[in-house]
Design a protein that fits this description.
Length: 198
């Protein structure tokens, strides 16, 4: 299962969170990926833990893609958090974590929030972030068959229409508080989702 979150946490993400939490047993591990953050990874992890505690979910750890992410191999859920999309894709490539996700996509629940959602798509040029890395190859992991724009608002519409024509594939605009769920080839939408077709 892949869940794309438009860029929100509890309480705004409650409907999205309750969907995937209902499918996780208490003893199953949730691994949080804060590597895209421009702040402290530990601070971001504490923020996430506090939000998840509102649901009574506590079996959470985090993996640092800059060091050792092997704990992710034991996860039922891999939750990829937001931050800078270019930074996230760069470290996913360099660490091998992106290849790991492609291999494990059928066996693990993968949740992408904001930048974490963008990298799961076909191309990351749909991001709202600046390229602080200098990436020439903007292809995402391709775990879903379109590109994703989180934090979608109507102000982004014209840019995404033009970009869909350049990329030659569909772009999904996901506002905050909205989610896009792919579960065994069945697609469900929470909130408003905007599709931009080529």
């Amino acid at each position: 299962m892949i869940i794309l979150n438009g860029g929100s946490y509890y309480p705004d993400s409650q409907e999205i969170d309750l969907y995937w939490i209902s499918k996780v047993k208490k003893d199953e591990l949730i691994v949080f990926i804060p590597s895209a953050t421009t702040r402290s990874q530990e601070e971001y992890f504490e923020f996430f833990k506090q939000k998840m505690s509102q649901y009574g979910v506590f079996n959470i750890t985090y993996a640092d893609l800059y060091k050792d992410w092997e704990i992710a191999r034991n996860a039922k859920v891999i939750y990829i958090a937001g931050g800078n999309t270019y930074k996230l894709l760069d470290i996913m490539r360099k660490s091998g974590f992106g290849d790991f996700l492609k291999h494990e996509a059928q066996n693990t629940m993968i949740i992408g929030n904001s930048a974490g959602a963008v990298v799961l798509g076909k191309d990351i040029r749909t991001t709202n972030d600046n390229d602080i890395i200098g990436i020439e190859d903007t292809r995402g992991l391709g775990l879903v068959d379109y590109s994703i724009c989180p934090h979608y608002t109507e102000e982004k519409k014209d840019r995404l229409i033009k970009l869909a024509d350049i990329l030659k594939h569909t772009i999904i605009g996901i506002p905050e508080k909205s989610g896009f769920i792919i579960d065994k080839n069945k697609v469900s939408k929470i909130g408003f989702i905007k599709d931009f077709y080529r």
